[in-house]
């Protein structure tokens, strides 16, 4: 293994220092030409380097990361604008509305902040251009760059023609420079996508060679008085491309601290320039820290470094969700299932998504958000804390708590606008006596004998609806044999349905505020719907999962939403006769390669799976689980799979190549139903949204 040498992340710090040099001209006190070379030639590689890096990583994901990148960078841009607002105000820099718009879209609101609109717009333009294919995108970006060049350091050449001058004058009505997201950024972003690891020496030589060429170019341009600005040259793309290729070729690993530090450095250094000037003036040290250009540069770097380092330490990165073991959620499958079930429920009936037990292990907040966008406005959970969690995450609409909440918590029910199920008459009285106006749905016992007021006890309903404080907004019951097709179960279910609907009509006739009525969960929805109800309460079916393998054979094309993955932690070889795991439960009968996989029953994977023929998928092939599953790890026999490496991704539930392990299969092997398996998945598992495969 090569030692960790995160060259790209380390160079980010150099690049930030170079940007700072552009803004402080460190060598002016000593050599004007030297400073010109440093700040107008060498330091000009810094910003293109950032673009190339962005383009490289975005193209690695097939540009599917672009929305995430735009969101994150947009946020950082907004923060930076706010950070410099006091300086804008102090310097009376708030101009007219067109000026502000120009600053926001192209020029930036402070001198270095042009970078953010440039990278945001640049990425958008690349996405657009890539629709026409790579070649087209590249040609178009190169053309844009050439146009930009004519408004930058080659301006004099074009301005000598009336048509050229008119063209650029028109452009400069819209933005102050051509160094922006339209002309400057796209070429570098796309070049980043072209970069590959190559011979480091060769790349470095080409970098030096083109840097010399670029130096000659810049000095020649200056001598001929051509530049209007000095950000773009003909050789800059060549020079920075080879610089990046060199860094990529020697790069090993990453340094997230360096990333955070350099980003902070870039954002705050102009503030530090202002502060250094102010402090030097206040302390009478201007000759050392302002007039001496190197002293000034050093002071700014030290102050900026302290601020950036503090920031980077105080706000460390969150660990990645896919670092060890994680659930991956296919949000488009969730939406498709919801559409399918809504159709089954009938036109008058809406879905109330049941997201108890953290959305059957799928992440209730994530699922609630996705379903909200798919038009599902009602949610049911099992407990008060589950309801509060959704509300605090900003989930709107009705949230019904299906299970018991201590009546003393009535205040919290009201505070979080949660609707509580009335478990029985005694519960209703205790809840009403708290004096809070709680919204409730009345549970009806139609034969399950679990919770609810008995359906035939009309007197109890009469007393219930007369209780003070409670706001009755719904009435519901639950079927307990809807998944069974034998005649006894079917007639029992029919009886439950008839009794519930009969009760609802009778209460309505008698003028009680019954509210919304609902009865069917997944099994009922799949077999019985539509019914004349206002809501249906599917849980499991939303997640594209059936209780058992048998039911999976149904014709309804529900799509599984969850897959479960973990990383290979270690690989080792056993000689015949050697054992592995707790209780020496595995014995090698041949030379055996064992992979240790970083997931266990502490993550909700049932321990019995190992004993009952369970397997995992690696490289699209089944590898049997070896011996007993541990709390945090399991062993798999990967002898027949070829070379398995540490850190590789293993699938516990889901698809890998042509092979699939379904949740139904795992549950079946463990003698349980998928509901129990999924609800048991631990919150310590990471949660990822599955990336859409499409994209340029
Ligand atoms: C869990 C639950 C549901 C959802 O059941 P599924 O079979 O997962 O669709 C609906 N209603 C009540 C009362 C529940 O407890």
Write structural notes for this entry.
This protein is α/β, with parallel strands linked by helices and 696 residues long. Among the domains are: 1-40 and 255-317, no CATH class; 349-544, Alpha-Beta Barrel (TIM Barrel); 562-689, Lyase, Ornithine Decarboxylase, Chain A, domain 1 (Beta Barrel), CATH 2.40.37.10. The strands form 3 sheets. Strands 1, 11, 14, 15, 16, 17, 18, 19 and 20 form a 9-stranded mixed β-sheet that branches. The relative contact order is 0.08. Bound molecules: pyridoxal-5'-phosphate. Pyridoxal-5'-phosphate binds next to helix 24.
> How many angstroms separate the termini?
34 Å
Per the CATH scheme, the topology name of the domain at 349-544 is TIM Barrel
Tertiary shape: globular
Query: What fraction of the residues are assigned to beta strands by DSSP?
Result: 5-15%
Q: Would you tell me the overall average pLDDT?
A: 94
Largest sheet: 9 strands, mixed
CATH architecture name of the domain at 349-544: Alpha-Beta Barrel
- Number of E-state strands: 20
* Bound molecule types: pyridoxal-5'-phosphate
Segments where pLDDT lies below 50 for 5+ residues? Answer: none
Structural category is: alpha/beta
Helical run tally: 28
Evaluate the radius of gyration: 33 Å
The CATH class of the domain at 349-544: Alpha Beta
In percent, how helical is the residue content? 40-55%
Within CATH, the superfamily of the domain at 349-544 carries the name Alanine racemase
